[in-house]
Amino acid sequence: MNSIKVAAEQMAPSKVVCVGRNYTAHIAELNNELPEQMVLFNKPNSAIGTQLLATHNNDVLHYETELCFVVKNKRLVGIGLGLDLTKREVQAKLKNKGLPWERAKAFDGSVLFTPFVELSDDMQHFSFELTINQQLIQQGNSDFMLHTPAQILAEITDFMHLEDGDVIMTGTPAGVGEVTAGSVFSVTLYANEQCILTHQWRAQ
Ligand code: ZN
To answer: Ligand 1 is a single-atom ion; what residues have CB below 5 A from it?
Structure first.
């Protein structure tokens, strides 16, 4: 089983639950409709990777930087950032046919996580950024999400049990694009405008 690091603890998520379309600017950039119901999909434990890949089985990958939470005892206990890697062309074809997204979203190495920081009650107003080769590419802020982390947790657990270690990805802001081999991806997370973590991957 693949694992994640939450403070000093290693945890093995059984699944990663992802929210689609949680920021209006990203909905607009992909010409998607504002969903009536929260869009949710899963990535299995086998999707969790450690290396940022530019391609998988010759398909080009797109990055989505997302605020992520770890669940324990049915509560959000850890916060970090993740890259939801997507085969955008494959996804577009599947979407058009009304087919499931696993081939575009659940392949091996389709999600990467930073280490997670323990979540405390005084941490609020989360914001994050992605730079690629030191250029600012994506910026997200929990205040601009359509669904708050607490609403997302409630919606998921209404129909699906979350095991300890499971991760929730809260959707990407605008600015998604292709991963290019050799690029340096650097992500930074702020709580109340204080930096609480920073992490880098070099694309291969
Ligand atoms: Zn995503």
So the answer is: 64, 84, 172
